[in-house]
Amino acid sequence: MLETSARLLRLLSLLQARRDWPGAALAERLHVSERTVRRDVERLRDLGYPVNATRGTDGGYRLGAGTVMPPLLLDDDEAVAVAVGLRTSAGGGVAGIEETSVRALAKLEQVLPSRLRYRVNALQTYTEPVPADRPGPTVDPGVLTALAAACRDQERLRFDYRTHDGSASVRIVEPYRLVSWGRRWYLVAWDVDRQDWRTFRADRVEPRTPTGPRFPPRDPPEGGAAAYVAQGVSAAAWRYRSRVLVHASAEVVTERINPAVGVVEALDGHTCVLHTGADSLNTIAVYLGLLDLDFEVTEPPELVDHMRRLTARYARSTAADDGPPSPASTA
């Protein structure tokens, strides 16, 4: 009986780990026959877990949605991660989720073993978040879960989207990842109509149901979803844009900048172009100074003038009064 109970817990853990499981794959993981898997699935159903089955050569099992929330299996690290995540979400960022997070956290901490409760309390007591410079937009948690589910299930998504100028359109995408940057959430997806990768602000998305057909996975955007968002979102928000010729290889420059700073374009083995920008000319000047490399600025004209003023200012800062000549120098 103990072996059967342990196997049921392992089966439940596997079903919770991913959406679909072929019966043969479950039997291999559990080191049992497919007949035993079928019996164990029936036992889980008797315990109230809605395990759905599909027939045929591609048939398998899926943990479905039931009328009540079944118990979840969490290891120590997962339990701590959930508790920390709930405490973080209680601070805002997702509309209407603060109170719900507090209630869920109270239930979780009530059953945490003392060793795990100690770890969670230590993180809460000895960490302090830096307040945001300005309040960010809030996102409906239902929208986030719908987007995440479409990414997980690889299902096409149709949604109404509002751009920064208020114009609306209907988009059809193959969702890839959700990216959290500061207090904003972004969806990285393949735009079916435009045949290219695009970034969408989650707080401007209104999903339409039902979702579309399944799609095969694509190669992700270069650098991954987070880097793609960092590059695209930063560039879209820049007030000033600059094209800078750097006298170093693209590999060297890439190692010295954050992806949010700009995009590096290789010219040859010794030079490259840095496409960068910022809300202020001073910020661009700081980026270029931190490169610690020789470079040439040709545009925009405002940046060229600003760099000349900085050059003169730095030159004046080192032109100290030498005072009267020393006796040795007049001998």
UniProtKB/TrEMBL annotation:
The keyword Transcription regulation applies. Gene3D superfamilies: Winged helix-like DNA-binding domain superfamily/Winged helix DNA-binding domain (1.10.10.10). It comes from the Bacteria. GO terms for molecular function: DNA binding; DNA-binding transcription factor activity. This is DNA-binding transcriptional regulator. Residues 4-63 form the HTH deoR-type domain. Keywords: DNA-binding, Transcription, Transcription regulation. The keyword Cytoplasm does not apply.
